[in-house]
Design brief:
Strand content: 15-25%
Number of strands: 7
Bound molecules: S-adenosyl-L-homocysteine
Radius of gyration: 18 Å
Length: about 240
């Protein structure tokens, strides 16, 4: 996500500072103190924070941590959470490559990858957030019943992700190449056209929530309203029951 440098970034950041976890490595192994024992869900690359704030608001029994490497968008996500008075979400400004320093083995129950940068060139394959190096980090910090939930509009990145997950021994489930179409069909077969209470949206896109209570993201809203199909999957590290709490 490219943005022009925001003015007053430092003072804006200062105002919402209580939502920022600085030096997050000091909480490795003790996030339950912050989460009050609630399951911990992590979004990698939260952008402007629509997903994390709406999902946190709808799921008070879960504690959310959002990671974002670009301060200009992170501050917008933090301001959103602050405006809404959310008490079950915190933010980290960092890169996904650092996650192993911040969370100890088995500490996270779900990781969300929403519209991650696809890095289409083969040369940059290792930067994709579903490449083997990252999957190994996720496997380590996920709990025994933990999972990765991935959504993207990019079909090539999605297909790469499925292949890479399977090659690395993950169990891939609930694969859909058209999430919004599938949800509309489900709603229709249940005798309802309401796929999530999005009253006032004439073409029915996007429904307010995806399966499992996740909010629609900024990118998802934009692409779905243009008619671009959204791909989604859930993946489980297959050997998760070994050496895990
Ligand atoms: N999740 C949002 C934004 C998608 S754009 C949505 O669906 O609307 C991808 C976001 O991920 C950008 O904000 C980018 O800065 C962030 N990002 C990409 N790679 C990252 C990494 N390695 N670590 C942390 N954030 C990353």
């Amino acid at each position: 996500m490219r943005m022009r440098k925001k003015k007053n970034l430092a003072s804006r950041m200062e105002r919402v500072r209580s939502l920022l976890v600085e030096n997050p490595e000091r909480f490795s192994g003790s996030w339950d103190k912050l989460s009050s024992g609630r399951p911990l869900h992590l979004e990698i690359g939260c952008g402007k924070g629509k997903f994390i704030t709406e999902t946190a608001s709808a799921n008070p029994n879960v504690f959310f941590v959002a990671l974002e490497k670009i301060a200009d968008v992170l501050v917008m996500a933090m301001e959103k959470a602050s405006r809404e008075g959310l008490t079950n979400v915190l933010f980290i400004r960092s890169d996904a490559a650092m996650l192993e320093e911040y969370f100890s083995s088995g500490e996270i129950t779900r990781i969300y990858l929403n519209f991650s940068d696809p890095w289409p060139s083969k040369r940059h394959q290792k930067r994709r957030l579903t490449s083997e190096g990252f999957l190994n980090i996720y496997r380590k910090i996920l709990s025994g019943d933990g999972s990765v939930c991935l959504k993207t509009d990019n079909r090539d990145f999605f297909e790469f992700s499925v292949r890479e997950l399977e090659r690395c021994g993950w169990r891939v489930e609930n694969v859909t190449f058209d999430l919004h179409g599938a949800m509309q069909q489900t709603a229709a077969s249940q005798g309802s056209t309401d796929t999530g209470g999005d009253a006032g949206n004439s073409n029915g896109y996007p429904p307010a929530f995806n399966p499992e209570g996740e909010a629609v993201t900024e990118y998802e809203q934009r692409f779905a309203s243009m008619g671009v199909p959204i791909c989604r999957l859930v993946a489980f590290p297959a050997d998760a029951d070994i050496d895990k709490p």
